[in-house]
Design goal:
The protein is of the alpha/beta class. It has four domains: about 70 residues, no CATH class; about 210 residues, Type I PLP-dependent aspartate aminotransferase-like (Major domain) (Aspartate Aminotransferase, domain 2); about 35 residues, no CATH class; about 160 residues, Aspartate Aminotransferase, domain 1 (Alpha-Beta Complex). It is about 35% helix and about 15% strand. The chain has 15 helices and 16 strands. The strands form four sheets. Strands 1-9-8-5-4-2-3-15 form an eight-stranded mixed beta sheet, with helices on both faces. A three-stranded antiparallel beta sheet has the order 7-6-13. It is globular and about 80 Å long.
Length: about 500
């Protein structure tokens, strides 16, 4: 089809033709990136690479990006505002603020808690402590150091990958500890009941790094939930009249998301800060995101406070333009509007993506169940065991987790006839994507070793972190993302089963 000369002079018709051709181009070029269940998905060829994760999209996302680019607003605008509202509505939080990455989201979240606009006894000041977990991704922890606070590392459970909550009290220091900040590991919620009770007892902030866990949920008996200040379910969730179930990222004071391609939805680069309840935190977080300014007017809008030239703040003269008044040492961490346009389409896919991740985890677990002598498999927090017929059995706490898995975690048992590295090498030889559990034991990483040498007081470690070392030495994970087809998953299973059986027989 060719565009007529008449339509070439009609901007609306020309735009429509550009978007039609954009969709056609995407259908022809991007077929390998469609969801695995999509009938137009290009079949996987045996012997081809199986990524551990990647972007999953159709022509809808490409059209949205091009349409937004044609408007050429570029900086965060109407698409960003809409996505912020839609994400907050999905989660059931007060506000969501878009940023340019999950790492930036963590930086904004912890920076917000340093604001002088907060009560003095709760504000994180230079040298105050934030409890975190040793096994994980570095930018969960780096912002703690970057704002002048002290990360206090406690150990992780090698089965769940999450924090050992029994060490929280040991890590606490009266008058110094101000917050707990840690991630839900690989889409497995940490023990929120125990962590919330600890934070409530000591009046601490809880920052949930939800970057790997969008679409995970946590439930607990209603009586317990009410004692912790929760009585309502998250939107779209129901676990019966005697229980409260909420998405992860909605239990703490503030939470973070990542929209990097391997994550549950993508904007390319991007992330979000979720303000769960406190409106004041929204204004503060937005200030840190937007240069540290005191003004809360959206870009392109002036004087929503009706006193733009009436403020007197700091040592500035009365009437100094509020749009150029800065109450924080902030950043510019906004994403672009075309990214938000992509994210809005992706958010509509999130329910199907969540289910695909759960199903892919189950397929891998079932397919590798014969290797339990050599391999240790993950369990959701509060689960005691798994079997193919009954699924998970649960502990006596009454709490449950429903995981939208970021990855399928495998640990090589100590008595196995091969090592984690040898298994990883075999996967690489067969072009099967795999990753370590991110940084392993972070205190062993060069940056933190150097930090401890340069400034021993800049971090604190509780215990010997034996289990975090075990994760570092023995653990890897495979993908569960919604671009994995049944054939790809079966190929992974066949390679691992053959390798383990061959090593055991040898």
């Amino acid at each position: 089809m060719t565009t007529s000369p008449a339509s070439m002079s009609d901007p609306a018709a020309l735009r429509q033709e550009i978007l039609r051709l954009t969709r056609e181009y995407s259908r022809q070029v991007h077929a390998p990136f469609r969801p695995a269940a999509d009938h137009d998905r290009q079949p996987w060829q045996e012997g081809s690479t199986i990524p551990y994760a990647g972007r999953v999209f159709t022509e809808d996302e490409v059209e949205a990006a091009v349409a937004s680019t044609l408007d050429f607003w570029l900086t965060l605008g109407k698409e960003g505002e809409a996505f912020q509202q839609e994400l907050a509505a999905f989660l059931g939080v007060r506000h969501s603020l878009l940023v340019n990455s999950g790492s930036s989201a963590n930086l904004i979240a912890i920076s917000a808690l340093t604001s002088p606009k907060l009560p003095d006894d709760r504000r994180i000041k230079l040298g105050d402590e934030v409890i975190t977990v040793a096994a994980g991704f570095p930018t969960t922890v780096a912002p703690i150091v970057q704002v002048g606070a002290v990360p206090v590392f406690i150990d992780a459970d090698p089965i769940t990958g999450n924090v050992r909550c029994e060490q929280l009290e040991e890590a606490y220091r009266s008058g110094k500890t101000k917050a707990v900040m840690m991630a839900h590991a690989l889409g497995n919620p940490f023990d929120l009941a125990a962590t919330l009770a600890f934070c409530q007892k000591h009046n601490l902030w809880l920052v949930e790094d939800n970057c790997d866990a969008l679409g995970c949920s946590y439930s607990m008996p209603k009586q317990l939930a009410e004692s912790l200040g929760f009585s309502e379910n998250s939107p779209g969730l129901d676990d019966g009249p005697d229980r409260v179930v909420r998405w992860t990222g909605t239990w703490g004071d503030i939470s973070t998301q990542s929209f990097y391609p391997p994550h549950h939805l993508t904007m390319g680069e991007g992330g979000a800060v979720n303000i769960v309840r406190d409106q004041k935190l929204k204004v503060i977080a937005e200030s840190f995101r937007d240069w540290g300014r005191d003004c809360w007017c959206p870009s392109g809008i002036d004087n929503t406070c009706n006193k733009r030239f009436d403020w007197q703040l700091g040592e500035l003269p009365k009437g100094y333009d509020h749009k150029y008044t800065y109450s924080h040492l902030g950043f510019n961490l906004k994403p672009l509007d075309p990214q938000a346009a992509i994210g809005r389409v992706q958010l509509k896919r999130l329910p199907e993506f969540i289910e695909a991740r759960k199903q892919n985890w189950e397929i891998l677990r079932e397919g590798l169940s014969a290797q339990e002598n050599s391999l240790e498999f993950a369990l959701p927090t509060h689960a005691k065991a798994w079997d193919s017929e009954q699924g998970f059995s649960w502990d006596e706490t009454g709490c449950r987790t429903d995981c939208s898995w970021f990855g399928f975690k495998i640990a090589v048992k100590p008595g196995a006839s091969f090592t984690r590295t040898e298994l990883a090498q075999e996967l690489d030889r067969n072009m099967i994507g795999n990753r370590m559990l991110f940084g392993g034991n972070l205190v062993r990483q060069p940056a933190f070793v150097q930090l401890k040498q340069d400034r021993p007081e800049a971090m604190r470690v509780v215990g010997k972190l034996v289990d975090s070392d075990q994760i570092m030495n023995n653990t890897l994970f495979l993908g569960t993302y919604p671009g994995l087809t049944q054939e790809m998953l079966q190929a992974e299973i066949d390679v691992i089963n053959a390798f383990v059986s061959g090593q055991e027989d040898g």
